[in-house]
Amino acid sequence: MISSHIDRVLISRERISRRVAELASQITRDFSPPRVAADSRITIVPVMTGAMVFCSDLVRQLPLRLRISTLRVSSYPGAATSSQGAKLVEAQLEGIVDSHLLLVDDILDSGNTLRLLIPMLQSYKPASVRTCVLLRKKRERPAEIDVDYYGFDIPDEFVVGYGLDYDDFYRNLPDIVSLKPDVVSPKDA
Q1: CB 58 within 8 A of CB 20
Q2: Mean pLDDT of the region 71-92
Q3: Domain with 54 in it: what CATH number?
Q4: Total structural domains in the chain?
């Protein structure tokens, strides 16, 4: 059973649900007239696959006319528990010129993913680029990048669940959890 791998629950599914609703309200307000023109194009750009659960819950609560384009980035390949540097793997970004973009990611850790993606998205000449992350890690050395919207601040520890993974497992957990030390490979702990 997967529950035997969990050390502790950091953020419950109920807290996540409430916070996603709050974020959706903020985003709806910021992407609605008079802040953006009524005929503006809005494109949500989730970073796959970590942000897929968060983004799907978020967009279902946005009463906006929007499109979705996707990016795939690799930062934690395989069983890594620390960022190995962000690399763009795939981008499906048709029709984002002059669109208001909301880049949605699972976690702000080192900041490498956002540092890679924001300038790349800006090169397409969108109307604007805003960022939304579910989690911001409190680190000794901050990521030196700010986001427009975030769900929760968490301690600087490795977490899984609600789309976040370890070696492509645990994305299906409904809560944000830490794993027991013996589950995480000793070479990466």
Answers
A1: yes
A2: 68
A3: 3.40.50.2020
A4: 1
pLDDT in tens, 130-149: 999 999 998 876 668 899 99
C-alpha 112/C-alpha 87 separation (Å) is 9
Report the pLDDT value the prediction gives residue 142, as an integer from 0 to 100: 63
Return d(Cα 66, Cα 63) in angstroms, integer.
9
- Distance of alpha carbon 139 from alpha carbon 141, whole angstroms: 5
- Separation of alpha carbons 162 and 45, rounded Å: 18
180 located within any domain = no
pLDDT at 189 over 50: no
Q: From CA 18, how far away is CA 129, in angstroms rounded?
A: 25
Q: Which domain holds residue 77?
A: 13-32+42-156
Reported as a pLDDT band with limits 50, 70 and 90, residue 119 is: very high
Helix (H, G, I), strand (E, B) or coil at 163: coil
Neighbours of 32 (CB within 10 A): 15
Residues marked as catalytic: 109
